[in-house]
Amino acid sequence: MKKFMLTALLAFGMVAGAQAEEALSLTPEDTYKMVQEQGDEMLFIDVRDPVEIMFIGFTNAVDQNIPFQLVDRTRFNDEKQVFAMDLNENFVAEVDAALEAKGLDRDSLIVTMCRSGSARGKPSADYLLEQGFTNVKYVDNGFQGSTAKEGEKKGMRVVNGWQNSGLPWASKANPEKIYRP
Q1: Tens digit of each residue's pLDDT (9 = 90 or more) over 120-150
Q2: How much is the pLDDT for 104?
Q3: CB 3.0-4.6 Å disulfide test: which of 13, 28, 121, 170 passes with 114?
Q4: Contact 58/173 with Cβ under 8 angstroms?
Q5: Which domains does the chain have, with CATH numbers?
Q6: What is the pTM of this model?
Q7: Is 135 exposed, middle or buried (CB count within 10 Å of its CB: 0-12, 13-18, 19+)?
Q8: Which residues form the Rhodanese domain (predicted)?
Q9: Residue 133, exposed/middle/buried by CB under 10 A (0-12, 13-18, 19+)?
């Protein structure tokens, strides 16, 4: 019986060990503090499509805008009333290049940020972990934050996120940091 239990535990451990690691979140405030204290030792990327940044805003705290997904304006989803978004085929190569430009490697801390944190922030961080990067996190609630559930501003993105945390941002993107294919 002991031998069976040991075999079962070892098998479970091997299966559990084979599962991909999941990225952890950081608050916008913690991210900003990390950028201020150890910015040279980490890569902070905005993973939104640059057109989205043009309409929502940007923070110069990021090192670079490297979209995880790009909008395909030739395909529209009538049911969801949105354009299709496809994986940026060059995402991993562009992250590698950004790391190299800062003298960093795939073991360095990478923090991703999208609009809300869940649609591309976490998925992009998880994707990088799957691709062999070892220390990837994402900004919880992203740049714009969550929508208010009630009150005068119900449905507006005025809850949490980078913009709503009093952190520095601007309505215009920095031309030196914005993605240009």
Answers
A1: 999 999 999 999 999 999 999 999 988 889 9
A2: 98
A3: 121
A4: yes
A5: 22-165 (3.40.250.10)
A6: 0.85
A7: middle
A8: 38-155
A9: buried
**One-letter identity of residue 91:** F
Residues paired with 43 in a beta bridge: 110
As given in the structure block, the two tokens for residue 86 are 């496809």
> Per the structure block, which two tokens stand in for 122?
């976490």
Question: What is the rounded distance in angstroms from the CA atom of residue 96 to the CA atom of residue 54?
Answer: 25
